[in-house]
Each structure stands twice: as C-alpha cells, then as structure tokens.
Write a structure and sequence with these properties.
71 residues
C-alpha cells in the first residue's frame, strides 16, 4: 500500500467519523429531550428543542473538522 492509498483511507475514515458524530449528537439531543420531557411533563417541547440543539452540535462538529483540516 503506497502513501496515496493511505491518504485515501485516512480521508474516508475522517468522513465516516464525521457522519457518526452527527448521528451521535442528534441521538443524544433526542434522548436528553425525551428524558427532560418526562421529568417536567412538557411533551414534546423539550424533545424538539434538544433535537434541534443536537443537530446543530453535529453540524458544528463537522464544520470545525472541515475548517481544521481544510476539506
């Protein structure tokens, strides 16, 4: 395997990790919102708010990674 192949695999791994980070941030926001809704009885408002915050956090993570590595 030459350096070009290694760089290609490194790029694919980074893209995959960004996708996973987006899904995890969204899922954590959703779970936190559902939990807080059950505690405070505010269905579905906190779920919606935290879902949006989770999605925003996932995209912010992608943005900072792209900015850092210059894709």
């Amino acid at each position: 395997m030459d350096k070009k192949d290694k760089a290609r695999f490194k790029g694919l791994a980074m893209l995959a990790s960004m996708g996973i980070a987006l899904v995890v941030a969204t899922f954590l926001g959703l779970v936190a919102g559902i939990y807080l809704d059950s505690v405070f009885g505010t269905e579905p408002w906190l779920m919606i708010v935290f879902l949006i915050l989770g999605i925003a956090a996932g995209f912010w993570n992608i943005y900072t990674t792209v900015k850092k590595y210059g894709f």
